[in-house]
Amino acid sequence: MPSYRDPKNPPEWVGMDVYGAAVCFNTVEAGKQNLPKPETWKDLTKPVYKGKIVMPNPASSGTGYLDVAGWLQMWGEADAWKFMDALHENVAHYTHSGSKPCREAGAGEFPVGVSFEYRAVTTKKSVAPIDIVFPTEGLGWDLEASGIMKATKKVEAARKVMDWLASPDAMVLFSKNFAVLAIPGIAKPLDFVPADYEKRLVKNDFAWSAKNRDRILAEWTKRYDSKSEPK
């Protein structure tokens, strides 16, 4: 699909599958602490969640960056930074892993973990007492993709791999773990992922996201890095 490949013709890269934002909410810990289940991103800025939230650092986690880039594109820079300022007040710490917030929520270390849907689903399937929240404003996302490095000395072998990665056979394998695939008509419903998941994804300009990444991370680090875990 055009939205899941490089716009150049021929493309320099092609997509495989999409992974996007999700919130892991520990229902047992929430019950103990009398916390309501959040439904939106803005809900996470309410005072009741102060010190109850963990999320990934976008400078060291692709999941963290897809969150931040999603908010900036969805709300515009001024409103998105205001949101992140308010969210920061409630964050206990920023992790250097996109999976860790959900693992921490699943283990009951914190009630709320901002993560991504694949980790959320695997955590829930491990019988952790979590609900998976897909905030209603929209979901930041990223794309797993493949391309051939110009410097490769094994072009023919690389082409064979690329030809397979862009095939329906490969997509069938990806469909076991991902609800949105680059080739239409192959994805199938996944447990705990809403049927309209793809429609919930924000409009994502990869060129803008890449071009502005250093600037965005510098601003984020200046504002919020004081709560990051040690590396």
CATH homologous superfamily caption: Periplasmic binding protein-like II
Count of discrete structural domains? 1
Principal-axis shape: globular
Order of helices and strands: EHEHHEHEHEEHHHH
Number of continuous helical runs: 9
For this structure, what is the CATH class?
Alpha Beta
Query: Percent helix among the residues?
Result: 25-40%
N- and C-termini, Cα separation: 38 Å
Spans of 5+ residues with little confidence (pLDDT < 50)? Answer: none
Largest sheet: 6 strands, mixed
Supply the CATH architecture: 3-Layer(aba) Sandwich
Structural class: alpha/beta
Radius of gyration: 18 Å
How many beta-strand segments? 6
Q: What fold name goes in the CATH topology slot?
A: D-Maltodextrin-Binding Protein, domain 2
What does this structure look like?
The protein is α/β, with parallel strands linked by helices and 231 residues long. It has one domain: Periplasmic binding protein-like II (D-Maltodextrin-Binding Protein, domain 2, 3-Layer(aba) Sandwich). Strands 1, 2, 3, 4, 5 and 6 form a six-stranded mixed beta sheet that branches.
